[in-house]
Design goal:
single chain; alpha+beta; Helix Hairpins; Heat Shock Protein 90; 5-stranded mixed β-sheet; 9 helices; 7 strands
Length: about 325
């Protein structure tokens, strides 16, 4: 409704402005032609010449009027198309923002409901210390989830690339990969494959966060008997990090939506998370002038590849 009214207003504005401009242009042409015409010459040439001149003026006047009438019909249509085209990027941005807000509201609602329920249950009647502890633990876990979600949302809305780039420093991808692998709870099934030392210009905290998200995501959808491999490579100009697993994988349709905020595959609905892991990875890597690519197939696992400019000495 908002954009419909905006398009209507723009259509009217464009139409009126163009009609006024054309009207002024047509009047200017007619005034110029009639004003610069030398009437002394036709008086000497006779009545026939005057009649011919008057007929020419009438044809010009009628042509301008017909052209103006055609524009009165045509301009509203072209103005409507121009208004729609002008507002299309704004409308898309608004719709994406609205979906983002709706998704964020939904994700906030669940942990808040858990916190409220646990606290109300704890206060409903006297309980044992163990029961109070269990209620507070459940509420604390939900608070921690909200904190992670809030931090993720703040990172996703960060737009100032210049400010972020000022914090870049040479970072060893090898060290980050080993740090993430060793800090993960299931590190026994996580291996790091590296051919040589690879260094990139980045913010260590954000790059660690991106790789941690990939490993966590792979661990969620890979059996305990499965394997997760972090592969580090570099060409001298381009550095690459691959996180490959042999988990449940995704279809082409699911892979296409993997980086949409709050989107989760059907098989992922029952696992913990907010649907922000991969979008955050893409945001972080894009801020580091890199790219993210995902390849996956149902039952054959998933491989996510991060490419970044390699540090030049």
């Amino acid at each position: 409704m908002i954009f419909r009214r905006a398009i209507l207003r723009l259509t009217v504005t464009y139409t009126v402005v163009q009609l006024l401009l054309f009207g002024a242009f047509a009047l200017g042409i007619y005034a110029f032609v009639t004003g610069t015409f030398d009437f002394d010459v036709p008086e000497l040439a006779g009545e026939a010449f005057i009649a011919s001149a008057e007929q020419g003026f009438a044809l010009l006047r009628n042509g301008l009027l017909v052209g103006y009438a055609v524009l009165v019909v045509v301009l509203p249509v072209s103005s409507y198309l121009m208004a729609r085209s002008a507002l299309a990027p704004v409308r898309r941005s608004y719709e994406l923002q609205q979906r983002f807000v709706d998704g964020a509201s939904h994700e906030f609602r669940s942990p808040l409901s858990v916190i409220q329920g646990e606290l109300e249950l704890a206060l409903s009647r006297s309980r044992t210390p163990a029961q109070y502890r269990a209620a507070m633990t459940a509420a604390l876990e939900s608070v921690e989830g909200l904190t992670r979600l809030t931090n993720d949302l703040l990172l996703l809305t960060r737009e100032d690339a210049d400010e972020l780039e000022a914090t870049f420093e040479p970072i060893s991808l090898n060290e980050i990969a080993h740090k993430v692998a060793s800090s993960h709870g299931a590190s026994a099934r996580i291996t790091v494959t590296e051919s040589r030392a690879v260094v990139v210009d980045a913010t260590s905290e954000l790059l660690t966060r991106a790789l941690t998200n990939l490993v966590d995501n792979a661990a969620k959808f890979t059996d305990d008997s499965g394997a997760i491999d972090i592969i580090i490579s570099g060409t001298g100009r381009i550095a690459a990090i691959q996180v490959a697993d042999d988990g449940i994988g995704m279809s082409d349709v699911e892979s296409a939506h993997a980086f949409d905020r709050f989107w989760r595959a059907q098989d992922a609905r029952t696992t913990p998370g907010f649907g922000l892991g991969l979008p955050l990875v893409k945001q972080i890597i894009s801020a580091h002038n890199g790219k993210v690519n995902i390849t996956s197939a149902p039952g054959s696992g998933t491989t996510v590849t991060l490419t970044l400019p390699e540090h030049q000495t």
